Amino acid sequence: MLFSEIIKMAWSSLGANKLRSALTMLGITIGVFSVISVMTAIGALQYSIENGISFLGSNIFQFGKYPANISASGDVQEKFRNRHNITYQQALHYYRLMEGEAREICLKSFGYEVKGQAVYNGVKTTPSLLIVGTNRSFLTANAYTLGYGRNLNDEDVDLSRRVIVVGKLIEKRLFPHETPIGKVVRVSGHTYTIVGVLAEKGTAFGQSQDDLCIMPITRFFEDYGEAKRTVNIATQAFTQDTYNRTFDRGIGAMRIARGLRPDQPNDFEIYSNDSLKSAFVNVAGYVRVGAFVISLIALVAAGIGIMNIMLVSVTERTKEIGVRKSIGARSRDILRQFLTEAVFISETGGVLGILLGIVAGDLLATWLKVDLIFPYGWALAGLLVCSAIGIGFGLYPAYRAANLDPIEALRYE
Hints:
The chain is α+β, with helices and mostly antiparallel strands and 413 residues long. The chain is built from 14 helices and 14 strands. The chain has helices at residues 3-15, 18-50, 74-81, 88-98, 138-141, 154-158, 168-174, 217-224, 243-258, 273-316, 318-326, 331-367, 376-402, 406-411, and strands at residues 60-64, 104-110, 118-120, 123-124, 130-134, 146-149, 163-166, 184-187, 190-198, 203-204, 207-208, 212-216, 232-236, 269-272. Strands 1, 2, 3, 4, 5, 6, 7, 8, 9, 12, 13 and 14 form a 12-stranded mixed sheet that branches. Strands 10-11 form a two-stranded antiparallel sheet. The protein is elongated. Residues 70-75 have low confidence and may be disordered.
């Protein structure tokens, strides 16, 4: 028999039992959908991280009380909370020790608990602005650029001036038709003069990076308190070649600033863009493995369903097989027909699962506002796995059908 004839017969047999075929395909679809949707979403996130979404600027490492990925178990979080804060005095000590050793040193403290809201002439922003106390190096350390106006300077910090640099969303909300430079706004009960506007940076993982205002760290502490705050310290090496040397000296300076003895471990966290990417890749790896294992279990269960349906089909079509054999069909033709049916069911469910999985994964990526991708590798792997399932679980029913005795098959009622 020609392969095209086998395809037509397989399609006709499946069409005769549409509901049963559809339910069998559904198991394959669910298994493939689960793995493809997860892989698509993770791939989109990873692609965005590796192509420009950076927490820090280039050649920069940072010290902080907490690690960047603080989402750990309760005991681990308690360990970090029990650490002493990095005080402003310790940060200044580090700054003095590292002067001349680094291009930029950024000291910053975040007012996460402050419901930041800016008001100008009765117009208000949302009460979710991030207020940051910092110095002139914040833009470099956090990969921001100045749109217009001026940046904070050392004199602003030394004199605790009431000046701020605002994000693009604040400008759009409060000053849609005029420049904000020189205007006095009220932020969380305190008045400040706007001296600069940051260029738009966009979003990262669904969170806007343009709804913040930065002010001199000394003014921040005076207005919002210093006692229970920790300071993050970001240090930029002069070049990539001097990064490792600056990194080693930075750790030594930080230990001195924290008053640690040589036998004491570091009581602060160190991270950089590379460490953040590595942490994400590790987490993504575990999620991928988990999704693959769960999907594999679902696919095996679906494969068992295919075998069961094909065995029922062989029993139902015993007389048909006897007739075909009696008029010249060979055992291998019967084998190929039933294998084709099994693979067709598996592949159709797989293709549907891949399409739905890519749509679901890219919808999640769209919600997180990261680039969309098509996971070619996982899609191809999904098709190969579906083929293997169709052949593996369809082989025994096909073998039984091919080895039926034509005389006994014709007698079957």
